[in-house]
Amino acid sequence: MKIKLDTSVPPHIKTRTSIKVTMLDVIVALIPAIAARIVLSPYSALLFFICIASTVLTEAFWQISSKKNVTVFDLSAVVTGLLLALLLPETIPLWMAGIGSVFAILVVKQFFGGLGSNFINPALAGYAFLLFSWFESVTSIGAIAEPYQQAIISIAILAGGFYLIARKVINWRIPLIFIFTVLVGVIAINLFEYVMSEQADVINFETLSRIIPFAVVSHLLVGNLIICAFFMATEPVTTPLTNKGQIYFALGCGILTIIIDVWGVMPSGAIFAVLIMNVTTPLIDKISYTKRYGHKLKHTNGK
User: Fold this and answer.
1) Quick one: which of 107, 74, 88, 124 has its CA closest to 231?
2) Between 20 and 30 A from 163 (CA), which of 134, 236, 268, 303?
3) What rounded mean pLDDT belongs to the chain?
4) Residue 90: which residues within 8 A CB-CB, separation 6 or more?
5) b (16+ CB within 10 A) / e for 237-265
6) Distance CA 145, CA 143 (A)
7) What is the spatial distance between Cα 84 and Cα 102, in angstroms, rounded to a whole number?
8) Of the candidates 141, 139, 147, which has an alpha carbon nearest to the alpha carbon of residue 215?
9) 191 pLDDT band (50/70/90 cuts)?
């Protein structure tokens, strides 16, 4: 009888925390943002319902039809629906939201083997699919248009993110490095643009004291940076396993966000930054893993 042994690099971590408990924590963390969104735009309640119903029913239908174990009760499909709904404007037609939800679960998650096998974040992929398919509908301005309204939702998401850190559902490393990188980049670019402008023959620190805080607050609280940093970039399936790899991942997300936001033509730089870095996760894991004791590199020249 042959015995197959699988080897991997330590540490080998075991935990009693189930997927359902983890997803329940994520749902609890999202409650403040969901409540704020519905209060500011009651129509969003329908959007949440459609996205959740579409993700759950799609996952159940696929698993039943393919004779697999039905796993909708682990709440992962519910989390995908909630996150996608938070990314979409409340003005988007509900049938589009449903299609995006089906795409996120069926194509991105189930076609690649289900939970734990998807190589990119399903909610972000669903958003990107809708953005490329119906750009105007996804980028339309709805009831939540004022910066202070968007800031309220971002603060609610931030509170949920710190809840996840306190519960040790996520590590602080990725979200904080991600956000810090973006803010440093925003400050550096605004300083450079001010100094290079014709009006900057003499640096006016009073003007800078208005420009820099406004730019920082705009990037931090207006847009998708917070939700991407705490809820998307920290998904364990699509992010590196090692501490060193997570630092590389977070830095890459921050740098790409700045590049896309400043010089790109697509909105939501943080969303595409996370998606791009999701694809690089296997490479980051490969270069950040600690080599096993006694392991020697093989040389192609035979020496």
Assistant:
1) 124
2) 268
3) 86
4) 37, 41, 43, 44, 47, 142, 143, 144
5) bbbbbbeebbbbbbbbbbbbbbebbeeee
6) 6
7) 11
8) 147
9) confident
